[in-house]
Each structure stands twice: as structure tokens, then as C-alpha cells.
UniProtKB/TrEMBL annotation:
One GO biological process term: secondary metabolite biosynthetic process
GO molecular function, one term: 3-oxoacyl-[acyl-carrier-protein] synthase activity
Pfam families, per database record: ACP_syn_III, ACP_syn_III_C
Organism expressing this protein natively: Ornithinibacillus hominis
Every Beta-ketoacyl-[acyl-carrier-protein] synthase III N-terminal domain range: 112-188
Protein name: 3-oxoacyl-ACP synthase III family protein
Record-linked CDD domains: KAS_III (cd00830)
InterPro entries (alphabetical): ACP_syn_III_C, ACP_syn_III_N, Thiolase-like
Alphabetical UniProt keywords: Acyltransferase, Transferase
Length: 328
């Protein structure tokens, strides 16, 4: 039976790292104390772009080159490129086109962008895995998630300005006959929250027609723990339908959006600390790439080994949730 496994994963982040002091001082000038907020979110440092050269695409290209080198592959070896971002550098052509050119991929490569916000890269890996199993001509895929989130952060809103970081992650997927790789994934969508997070706030058409600028993301306050009942049900359902238990999971690569959510998931399922990978205190919240930056961290530190069962979970604006089982 043909399965889809992760051959390699790598990461690139912005060069500049900023600690909480900068944000404490920034919001103190506005009469705001964000100490408790940063504690709840689990932030200490974050990487942010502070130059004219770097952007979503440059980070993606660097992550892709790193993972190709790690996998001992060249661009010509890639049959499919999927690029995930919610802050695309361009809308025409696809950002995958620039990635294709940068790695010198072959002309017959399947390429496309996808945007599922913060859930994007996890969904891209799921979609690529399922597509690869049905297409006999696609043997190797490059999936890249990259978000320049600080670009659209609101200096008056701690949720975006003090929370976001800029980074990319790249994964090589390949076909294998071994009993490993992609297992299953499931989704949950609550579109009643579709107006909570918006960029551009007024929509592209109205912004352009009014001659306005869309400078920052609109983020209405809402209770982030609203996602947890969905999450608990999804974990239980996907494990049950694959004849697994929570104890069978070796590592949890979860959204790095808020440490409080991870803590509640850990408490709900009595998950040992060593099975939780958390990088949000170093990277900030990197959006689409965050579960795979956690995966990379786990592999690099030896906490994740070949054959380990990983459970991925993340959430995109609106809201949409994905939970995925993958044996590394």
C-alpha cells in the first residue's frame, strides 16, 4: 500500500528577535499593561522582519532551500509545490510561481497557492497527501507555509502587535511503501465567527474603490477558549475512528497561538509534558507554519523520532479547525 511520509522539515525565521520589553514599553505609552496578556499567550520573544528585503516569499524560499538540502534533493526532483500563506506577497501570479523559479523546479510541476489562514499549512499537507495517493505521477511534494504577520499587525492592538512573529516552514512529502506517514484528518467549521478577524477590514473591493489603505488586520476581541470543546471532540473522534487512544500519541504539534489553550488541552487529556512541543515563547505566533515549526523543534531536539505518532491541531480565522494524525 502506498503511503505518504514526511522526508524532511525545516524552518526559516526573520533575523531580528525582539523580547517582551519592547512591547511592554510600547503599550505603557498608551496606558495599557499587557503583562497578563503576554503571560496567557505564552510570549517571551518573537522574530520580526525589520528590513525592506525580507517578506513572505523570501522566507518561504529560504525554508524551501533548507529543506531540499536536508533531504538531499534538488528542485527538479519535486513534482508538486503547495504554498500556504494568509499574507501573500502577491495575488497574481501565484506565490508558488516564485518558489518554483527559485528552486529551479521542472516545467511539469503541479503548483498552486492556498489560503486557509492559520490552518493553511496543516490543511496543505493533508490535501497534498491525499492528492499524491491518487496521482501516479506525483511522487514528491514540497509544502511551504510562510506568513509575514507583523506586516499587518495593529500597533494599537496587543493581540496582533505584541503576539505575531514572522517565519516559514517547509516540508518534503514523498511516497513510500512503508507503514508510516499520513493517517487521517478531520475538520470542524464555525462560520458564524467569519467577521471577527478581517483583512482588509472592509474587503478588497471597497478598500480599493474608496482609495483607502489596508494597513492592519481587524481583530475583534473574542474568547479563544471557545475552540476547546470542538478540539476535545475532534481528538476523541479521530482517535476512535483509527482505533487509537490518547496514550498512543507520542507527540502533539499544536497551534502555537495561545499557551493557555495548549495548557487546557494538556490538562483535559492528562498529556505528559514531554509530549507537548511549545515554541511560541521563542518564535511568537507565526500563523500557518506554527505546528510545523513545533514539529521541526521536536525533531531537532530528539523529542520526535522516526515512527512516532504525531497529532497536529490548529485553527484558522472564521473559524475552521483541522486535526491530523501523521506517523513520522
Amino acid at each position: 500500500m502506498t503511503n505518504i511520509r514526511i522526508r524532511a522539515v525545516d524552518v526559516y525565521h526573520a533575523k531580528k528577535q525582539v523580547d517582551n520589553t519592547v512591547y511592554f514599553e510600547h503599550f505603557q505609552k498608551q496606558g495599557k499593561d499587557i503583562t497578563n496578556f503576554l503571560h496567557i499567550m505564552g510570549r517571551n520573544k518573537r522574530y520580526v522582519i525589520d528590513n525592506q528585503e525580507e517578506n513572505t516569499n523570501t522566507m518561504a524560499i529560504e525554508a524551501a532551500n533548507r529543506v531540499l538540502k536536508k533531504a538531499e534533493l534538488e528542485g527538479k526532483d519535486i513534482d508538486m509545490i503547495v504554498f500556504s500563506s494568509q499574507v501573500p506577497e502577491v495575488t497574481v501570479p501565484t506565490n508558488a510561481m516564485f518558489l518554483h523559479h527559485a528552486i529551479q523546479a521542472k516545467k511539469g510541476t503541479v503548483i498552486f497557492d492556498m489560503n486557509a489562514n492559520c490552518a493553511g499549512m496543516t490543511i496543505a499537507v493533508e490535501q497534498a497527501s491525499r492528492y499524491m495517493t491518487s496521482n501516479p505521477h506525483v511522487h514528491t511534494a514540497l509544502v511551504v507555509g510562510s506568513d509575514y504577520l507583523s506586516l499587518v499587525a495593529d500597533p494599537n492592538d496587543a493581540m496582533t502587535y505584541a503576539n505575531f512573529g514572522d517565519a516559514a516552514s517547509a516540508v518534503i512529502l514523498e511516497k513510500t511503501e512503508e507503514e508510516t506517514g499520513f493517517i487521517d484528518a478531520m475538520f470542524e467549521v464555525d462560520s458564524s465567527n467569519r467577521n471577527n478577524i478581517l483583512f482588509p477590514e472592509k474587503g478588497l473591493a471597497q478598500t480599493i474603490k474608496a482609495g483607502e489603505r489596508a494597513e492592519s488586520m481587524r481583530w475583534l476581541p473574542f474568547d479563544g477558549t471557545m475552540s476547546l470543546p470542538y478540539t476535545y471532540d475532534m481528538f476523541e473522534t479521530i482517535l476512535e475512528r483509527n482505533q487509537l487512544t490518547i496514550e498512543d500519541v507520542d507527540v502533539f504539534c499544536l497551534s502555537q497561538f495561545a499557551k493557555v489553550n495548549i495548557d487546557k488541552i494538556q490538562e483535559r487529556f492528562d498529556i505528559p509534558e514531554e509530549k507537548i512541543i511549545y515554541v511560541g515563547d521563542e518564535y511568537g505566533y507565526t500563523g500557518t507554519s506554527s505546528p510545523f515549526i513545533a514539529l521541526h523543534e521536536g525533531i531537532e531536539t530528539g523529542r520526535i523520532k522516526r515512527g512516532d505518532l504525531a497529532l497536529f491541531w490548529t485553527i484558522g480565522g472564521g473559524h475552521e479547525f483541522i486535526t491530523m494524525l501523521f506517523r513520522y
